[in-house]
Design brief:
Blueprint lengths: L1 H11 L3 H30 L9 H8 L4 E2 L2 E2 L12 H9 L17 H5 L6 E4 L5 E5 L2 E5 L34 E3 L10 H7 L6 E4 L3 H6 L7 E4 L4 E4 L2 E6 L19 E5 L4 E4 L8 H9 L4 E5 L14 H10 L5 E4 L13 H13 L11 E3 L15
Parallel strand pairs: 5-6, 6-7, 7-8, 12-13, 13-14
Antiparallel strand pairs: 1-2, 3-4, 3-15, 4-5, 9-10, 10-11, 11-12
Helix pairs in contact: 8-9, 9-10
Length: 388
C-alpha cells in the first residue's frame, strides 16, 4: 500500500528543475512588479517632472500658431530620431573618449566682484549651456543647470566632468532674470531652481515651461512665457523669444507638451544671441534678418549624432548658423560638461574650430569660469581641452 502511494506521489510530483525554473519565474515577475510600482510612484510623485497645463493654459497654446493636436510643433518637419540597430551597435562598440581623464580646470569667480554692478558687459560660461550674463548692471542666468547630473534621478545620469562650479548658487548675488530655452533636464534643473528662486526677480521661458516653475513654488507674476517673436521690455533690456528646431519633455508621456526657443537679449550697447538647443534650419537666417547683427552668438555645438541630426546641429552647421544670424563672434555651447551623446567629448570644439577657420568666423573658447569682457579686450582662444 505504501509502495503504491509512493509511486502515485512520484507521478504527481514535478521534476526539481521545473520547480526551480517556475520559482525563478515568479521571483522575476515579482521583481518586475516592484520596479513597475516604484517607477509609477516616482513618475507621479517626484517633483522633478514638473507641472501639467490647465485647460485655460492650453487655450493660449492653441492661439500661438505653433500648437496642433495637443502638442507644439516646429516650423519645418523634424524627426527626433529613435532606436535602430545601427544606433545600438554604435552605442555598444564606440571607441570615442567620452569624458576627460581628469576633471577640467574651473576658474573661480569672486562673489564680491560679481555682486558689484558694472557698466561693462561680461559673460561667464559654467559649462554646457549655462551662463551668467552681466549686462548694464543686471545679472542674468541662461539655462542654469548647475547640478551634478542632468536627469530626474542622480544615480543613472551622466556626471558633470568638473568637480566644482565657478561660483556656488548660494554665493550668487540677486539675479534679475533667469532665461530658459526649454524644459530638458540639462537646461532646466529642479534643484538649481529651488536653490536660487528666492533671489530671482523674473523667469523668462517659452510657452508652457512656466507650469514647471509654478509647480516648484515660483509666483506666477514672476513667470513670463513668450511665444516665438514675442518680446518683453525688462529693466532697460529687450528679451525676445525666437524660433529653434527642437522638442521638449521631462517624463514618459509629455514630449512636445511645452515649447522651446532661442533668445535675443538686447541692451543699449550689446546685442546677444543664445541658441538654446536645436537642429539647423531656415530660422537662423530669419532671426539674423530681424534682430542681427549680434555681438556674440552662443551656439549649440555638441551632443549631436546623425541619428538625431534634425534636433542637434553638427559643428559645421553651428558655424554656418552663426553666419546666418549675423554673429560677429561664435561661442560654442552645449559641450564640455556632460556626456549626452556618443562622440568624443572634444570633437565638437575641434570640428567647429576647423570650420570657423575655413569660413573666417571669429570664435572664442573660454575655459569653464573664464569671463568674456565686452570692452575691446581680446577674447579667450586657448585650446584648453588638449590638456585632458
Amino acid at each position: 500500500m505504501q509502495e503504491a502511494g509512493a509511486k502515485q506521489f512520484a507521478k504527481t510530483k514535478k521534476p526539481l528543475g521545473k520547480r526551480v525554473i517556475k520559482g525563478i519565474g515568479w521571483s522575476v515577475l515579482a521583481l518586475l512588479g516592484i520596479v513597475l510600482i516604484v517607477g509609477t510612484l516616482f513618475l507621479n510623485l517626484s517633483p522633478q517632472f514638473g507641472g501639467t497645463a490647465t485647460a485655460e493654459q492650453i487655450v493660449r497654446y492653441e492661439e500661438s500658431g505653433h500648437y496642433q493636436e495637443g502638442i507644439f510643433v516646429n516650423q519645418e518637419p523634424t524627426s527626433v530620431g529613435g532606436p535602430s540597430w545601427d544606433l545600438i551597435n554604435e552605442m555598444l562598440f564606440t571607441e570615442a573618449v567620452q569624458a576627460p581623464e581628469k576633471a577640467p580646470e574651473v576658474i573661480s569667480l569672486d562673489p564680491a566682484l560679481v555682486a558689484q554692478p558694472d557698466s561693462i558687459t561680461r559673460l561667464t560660461w559654467f559649462g554646457h549651456s549655462a551662463f551668467l550674463l552681466e549686462i548694464e548692471g543686471k545679472h542674468i542666468l541662461l539655462d542654469p543647470m548647475l547640478g551634478d547630473t542632468p536627469s530626474p534621478a542622480p544615480l543613472p545620469g551622466p556626471k558633470r566632468f568638473s568637480r566644482e562650479l565657478p561660483i556656488e548658487i548660494e554665493e550668487l548675488p540677486y539675479i534679475d532674470a533667469v532665461v530658459i530655452s526649454h524644459d530638458h533636464y540639462d537646461h532646466l534643473d529642479y534643484e538649481s531652481i529651488l536653490q536660487m528662486k528666492d533671489k530671482v526677480g523674473a523667469f523668462f521661458t517659452p510657452l508652457g515651461v512656466g507650469i514647471h516653475l509654478e509647480a516648484w513654488g515660483i509666483e506666477t507674476d514672476k513667470i513670463h512665457e513668450l511665444n516665438w517673436w514675442e518680446s518683453y521690455e525688462y529693466k532697460g533690456l529687450t528679451l525676445v523669444s525666437t524660433p529653434s528646431r527642437h522638442f521638449s519633455g521631462r517624463g514618459l508621456l509629455d514630449r512636445f507638451k511645452t515649447f522651446w526657443s532661442s533668445w535675443v537679449i538686447k541692451g543699449e550697447k550689446e546685442n546677444i544671441f543664445f541658441s538654446g538647443d536645436g537642429g539647423y534650419g531656415t530660422h537662423f537666417k530669419e532671426i539674423g534678418e530681424k534682430y542681427g547683427p549680434f555681438d556674440i552668438a552662443m551656439m549649440e555645438c555638441g551632443q549631436y549624432n546623425t541619428h538625431w541630426k534634425e534636433i542637434h546641429m553638427m559643428p559645421e552647421e553651428t558655424v554656418q548658423a552663426t553666419l546666418d544670424v549675423k554673429g560677429k563672434l561664435l561661442l560654442p555651447i552645449h559641450w564640455g560638461a556632460f556626456t549626452l551623446s556618443l562622440h568624443d567629448w572634444r570633437e565638437p570644439v575641434i570640428r567647429a574650430s576647423k570650420k570657423a577657420k575655413e569660413l573666417n568666423v571669429p570664435m572664442t573658447t573660454p575655459k569653464i569660469g573664464e569671463t568674456i569682457t565686452f570692452d575691446g579686450r581680446d577674447y579667450p582662444v586657448t585650446r584648453w581641452w588638449e590638456e585632458y
